[in-house]
Amino acid sequence: MNADLSLMALISEASLLVQLVMLILLLISVYSWTIIFKKRTELVAAKRDADLFEDKFWSGNELNRLYEDITSRPHSGRGMEGIFEAGFKEFVRLKKTSTDSAYILEGTQRVMRISLSREMDELELSLPFLATAGSTSPYIGLFGTVWGIMNSFRALGEVQQATLAMVAPGIAEALIATAMGLFAAIPAVVAYNRYSNEVERLISRYDNFVEEFSSILQRQQG
C-alpha cells in the first residue's frame, strides 16, 4: 500500500471525534489561506494606490483640481485618496458656512479621522481570524491526538496480549491531528505577523498624511 493510501486509510478509520477534529482543522486551514491570498492582494493594491496618490498630491497640482479628478470617477476613492476626498469636501463645505479658521480646521480633521478609522477597520478586516487560527489550531489538533491515543490504550486494555501492531494505527491517526493543527497554525501566524506590520505601516502613512494635509489647509486659512 503506498503512502497516500496509508494516510487516507488512517484518516478514514479514525474515530468519529478525531475525524471531526481533522475536518475542523481542514476548514480552518482553507479559510486561512483564502484570507492570506486575499489580504496580500488588498495590501499590495493599498500601497500602490497610496504611492500613486502621494505622487499626485505632492506634484504641485491645485487641491481643487485633484479633488475634481477624484470625484469625477464612478467609484469613490479609498485609502489615502478617500481620506483626502472626505477632508477636502468638508473643508469646502465649512468654508461656505463659517469664517472661524479654528472651527473649519477642527471639523475637517474630525472628518478625516473618521475616514481614517474606516480605512483602519478595512485594512484589519480578517486579521483577527488569522490570529485566532494560529493560537487555537495546535490545541484543537492536540485534543484530537489525546482522544485518539486514549482510545488506543483503551482498546489495549481489552485484549490479553498487546502488540505494537495493534496500537500503532491508533497512535498514527492521532498524530495526524497534531500535524494538521500545526499545518493550519504556522501559515496563519506567519501571515498575521507580516500583515499586521504592513497594516501598521500603512496606517502610519495615512496618519502622517492627515497631519500634513491639515497643515496645508491651515496655511491656506492664514
Automatic annotation (TrEMBL):
Main localization of the protein described in the UniProt heading: membrane
Ranges that cross the membrane: 16-37, 127-150, 170-192
Organism domain of life: Bacteria
Signal peptide: none
Cellular component annotations (GO), alphabetically ordered: plasma membrane
Family matches, as InterPro entries: ExbB/TolQ_transport, MotA_ExbB_proton_chnl, Tol-Pal_TolQ
Pfam name, any one: MotA_ExbB
GO biological process, any: protein import
UniProt key word Disulfide bond: no
UniProt keyword Cell cycle, yes or no: yes
UniProt topology in membrane: Multi-pass membrane protein
Residue ranges of domain MotA/TolQ/ExbB proton channel in the record: 82-207
Subcellular location: Cell inner membrane; Cell membrane
Keywords: Cell cycle, Cell division, Cell inner membrane, Cell membrane, Membrane, Transmembrane, Transmembrane helix
Quaternary structure and partners: The Tol-Pal system is composed of five core proteins: the inner membrane proteins TolA, TolQ and TolR, the periplasmic protein TolB and the outer membrane protein Pal. They form a network linking the inner and outer membranes and the peptidoglycan layer.
PANTHER family found in the cross-reference section: PROTEIN TOLQ (PTHR30625), TOL-PAL SYSTEM PROTEIN TOLQ (PTHR30625:SF3)
Function, in words: Part of the Tol-Pal system, which plays a role in outer membrane invagination during cell division and is important for maintaining outer membrane integrity.
Family the UniProt entry places it in: Belongs to the ExbB/TolQ family.
Protein name: Tol-Pal system protein TolQ
Source organism of the structure: Methylophaga muralis
